[in-house]
Amino acid sequence: MTDYRERMRNLREDSDLTQSELGKLLNKSQQGYNHIEAGRAELKIDDLIKLCQFYNLSADYIIGLTDTKKDYK
Predict the structure, then answer these.
(1) From CA 55, how far away is CA 22, in angstroms rounded?
(2) What is the C-alpha separation between 73 and 71, in angstroms, rounded?
(3) d(Cα 39, Cα 53) in Å, to the nearest integer?
């Protein structure tokens, strides 16, 4: 099982996005987003939903409960 922080970083990097760009999506600063990836802040459910919609992936995949990519809906 993959840690959700690692999964978030991998998704961001695979999409060639910066922490600033993802921070804007979640209404956070680059530093605020970095704190989530680094484990200094927890991912909020509202932010998880936004990430699911943005990447069109299931929450199970993003939080590391499965390694199978499933569509958000």
Answers:
(1) 11
(2) 5
(3) 22
Task: Check: CB of residue 64 under 8 Å from CB of residue 3.
Answer: yes
Q: What is the predicted pLDDT for the residue at 1?
A: 62
Q: What is the CA radius of gyration of the chain?
A: 11
Q: Does domain 4-62 match CATH 1.10.260.40?
A: yes
Q: 47-50 — which CB contacts under 8 Å span 24+ positions?
A: 50/25, 50/26
pLDDT digits (tens, 9 = 90+) for 10-37: 999 999 999 999 999 999 999 999 999 9
Q: How far apart are CA 61 and CA 8, in angstroms?
A: 10
Record the pTM.
0.92
Residues with Cβ within 8 Å of 44's Cβ and at least 6 positions away in sequence, in order, are none
Alpha helices in 15-44 (DSSP H): 19-25, 30-38
